[in-house]
Amino acid sequence: QCLTRAQVKFRFHACPDISQTESKEEVLTCIATWPDDRDASQTFLVGTLDFRYQRTEEDRLRCFLLRKTSNGFLVAKSSDATCHGGLASPEDGFQTFELGNVKPDKGNLFPMWTA
Q1: pTM, 2 dp
Q2: CA distance 109 to 14
Q3: Which carries the bigger pLDDT value, residue 52 or residue 18?
Q4: Mean pLDDT across the stretch 59-79?
Q5: Torsion angle in degrees (nearest 10) through CA of 58, 53, 9, 99
Q6: pLDDT tens digits, 22-56
Q7: Could you write out the DSSP letters of every residue in the chain?
Q8: pLDDT at res. 3
Q9: Which residues lie across from 7 on neighbouring strands?
Q10: Residue 105 pLDDT level (bands cut at 50, 70, 90)
Q11: Can you give the pLDDT at residue 76?
C-alpha cells in the first residue's frame, strides 16, 4: 500500500507451516536510492522501517537491493544498517521477497524511481 511517494506499507502474514512467524505491518520510508555499479538492472534503497519492536535508529535503518521484473520487483533486505554484507543480489539477502505490480493510489508511486 503506497502511503506517499516516499513511503510504502508492507503487510506480512504468518506462515502456518513455519513456527514462530507472525503477521505484521512495517512502514518503509525511503531515504536514498542509487544504481548498483555491479549490475545496472539493480538499485539500492536505504530507508527506515517503522515497526513496534524497532527502537533505535540502527534497528530501523535497512538497506534493500531491488530488481524490476515484468511482474514487479525482486527485493533483498539487509540484516543490519549497512549495505555491505549479505546483499549480493535481490535473490540473496537476510530477507527476500517479491513485490507484485500495484496501481498507484492517488498518483503515489513508490519507490519514486520506478516510473
Answers
A1: 0.77
A2: 27
A3: 18
A4: 89
A5: 80
A6: 888 888 888 888 889 989 899 999 998 886 665 77
A7: -EEETTEEEEEE---TTSTT---EEEEEEEEEEEE-TT-TTEEEEEEEEE-TT--SHHHHEEEEEEEEETTEEEEEE-SSS-SSTT-SBTTBSSEEEEEE--PPBTTB-SSGGG-
A8: 47
A9: 4, 29
A10: low
A11: 93
Separation between Cα atoms, residue 113 and residue 94, nearest integer Å: 24
Cα-Cα end-to-end distance for the chain: 16
> What's the CA gap between 63 and 47, in Å, rounded?
7
Task: Dihedral sign for Cα 95, 101, 103, 108, please.
Answer: positive
